[in-house]
Design a protein that fits this description.
By secondary structure, this protein is an all-alpha fold. The protein has 15 helices and six strands. The longest helix has 38 residues. It is globular, with a radius of gyration of 22 Å.
């Protein structure tokens, strides 16, 4: 192999490891700190469970459903996929018949599936059975994540599909290539809109926490949240920069000099765009807080960081640095305003998955239609509406976002209802009052030893088998 390819594969291994770091411990710390003291371990366990379950499922059939290139029908004939929606789960089951050089891409894409599922957990904190979550994970990624990954990144219905997909239907194609192709560089639809809608559906299906809207449910440890936000920001460079794809195929199939030029220029642009959009979003969130609440908070800074990262994800390779600043600022402001909607409309999105990931994903995905601009590093990018490129790209981005929302909503509802009427989602009311850490895991994040020698949780309750009958202040 050429040294350019060797360096690229080494880079991809590092990027995959950085994205893995985003879930454990990054997201686990971010969500754990935002939770109440009596549910922090459960919140962190939901992230770790996503890593365990989705990691195994992805190797077994996730990669094949997302990126396999044949579908065997009853008569033995084969095609590209099933109606452009997903590829065969059996073609590369267990990574069989896989080119060894693709293992690095399997690892990278696996980490995306893991964190997408883990993101949903923040919407349903404090109140669901751990067993229900374990059953939800493989079903949801199979029905929602893997198909959307195929439709957006695997040559399916929402992207190329030989010119026969959504883009070709709307604006035609030339020589099998859509005249206008949608842009989702690293997961605005597949990851953030998908997870945000899933969180909203589950929140509506499962119901509110006891006391929601009546008693304070403040984060118990913002230090953990700030550390988690920093780890997410660091890992996000692997997330976005690692999503570079050569326009001519895998690195080994293209001219090494051309690939090195693309790699050197595009990765730098994506890194800068990711950074400045995140900076601007944090400032935008803090500005809203200062004007509205008279305080700029650490939680607001951490949330603004994530909002900016979410918004720039689909757009990081399609904008100029100035465009990225504008997008980040808009995302920070809108997401800061959106997280308050749960109180107005009375849905209990515990850790603001809807307000940050759904809204941020929509801002980024649709924002591409306004702000996309070719640069020296990304000359093939079409111009957005504000750069004189017309409305076609904007229309396509909106339609793709709406399709992703609909697909995710239906898939999540199917899985959610199945679990609701079999295992059941919710823990008992008295167990929720006692604390899900103690009931579901038999542990407390902050065990203290009292003067009597009895082990006590942070609330002061003795950790015993008797259920509590009064609310635990956390």
């Amino acid at each position: 192999m050429n040294f350019a390819y060797d360096g690229y594969y080494a880079f991809m291994l590092v990027a995959a490891s950085m994205v893995l770091l985003m879930t454990a411990p990054g997201l686990a710390l971010f969500y754990g700190g935002m939770s109440r003291a009596k549910s922090v371990l459960n919140m962190m366990m939901m992230s770790f469970a996503s890593l365990g379950v989705v990691g195994v499922v992805y190797v077994l059939w996730g990669w094949s459903m997302s990126y396999g290139d044949s579908w065997a029908s009853a008569d033995g004939s084969t095609g590209k996929d099933f109606l452009g929606l997903f590829a065969s789960p059996f073609q590369n089951f267990g990574l069989s018949n896989l080119d060894p050089y693709n293992y690095v891409f399997v690892g990278f894409q696996m980490t995306f599936a893991v964190i997408t599922a883990a993101l949903i957990s923040g919407a349903i904190a404090d109140r669901v059975k751990f067993s229900a979550w374990l059953v939800f994970l493989p079903l949801w990624v199979t029905l929602s994540y893997f198909p959307l990954a195929h439709m957006v990144w695997g040559g399916g219905f929402l992207t190329w599909a030989d010119g026969d997909g959504l883009a070709g239907m709307l604006f035609g194609s030339t020589d099998g290539v859509p005249n206008v192709a949608p842009i989702d560089y690293a997961g605005g639809t597949v990851v953030h809109i998908n997870a945000g809608i899933a969180g909203l559906v589950l929140v509506l299906l499962i119901g509110k926490r006891l006391g929601f809207g009546k008693e304070p449910m403040k984060p118990h440890n913002l230090t953990l949240t700030m550390i988690g936000a920093g780890l997410l920001w660091f890992g996000w460079f692997g997330f976005n920069v690692g999503s570079l794809v050569s326009p001519n195929g895998y690195p080994a199939d293209v001219d090494p000099d051309a690939f090195l030029a693309q790699f050197g220029q595009e990765t730098g642009l994506v890194w800068v765009n990711t950074t400045v959009a995140t900076c601007a979003a944090m400032l935008g969130w803090l500005l809203v807080e200062k004007i509205r609440d008279k305080h700029a908070t650490s939680l607001g800074a951490a949330s603004g960081v994530v909002a900016g990262l979410v918004a720039i994800t689909p757009a990081c390779g399609a904008l100029t640095p100035v465009g990225s600043i504008i997008l980040g600022l808009v995302a920070g402001v809108l997401c800061s305003l959106a997280v308050g909607l749960k109180y107005k409309f009375k849905y209990d999105d515990s850790l603001d998955v809807v307000g940050v990931h759904l809204v941020g994903g929509l801002v980024g995905t649709i924002g591409v239609g306004f702000l996309a601009a070719p640069t020296a590093a990304t000359s093939a990018i079409p111009e957005g509406l504000l750069y004189g490129g017309g409305a076609k790209l904007l229309v396509l981005q909106v339609v793709c976002a709406l399709f992703a929302m609909l697909w995710s909503a239906v898939a999540t509802l199917i899985v959610g209802l199945l679990i609701k009427y079999t295992l059941g989602w919710r823990i008992k009311d008295e167990d929720e009052v006692e604390g899900i850490d103690t009931v579901e895991h038999g542990e407390s994040a902050y065990d203290l030893v009292g003067a009597s020698g009895a082990r006590r949780g942070l609330s002061g309750h003795v950790l015993a088998s008797e259920p509590a009958t009064e609310g635990v202040k956390a």
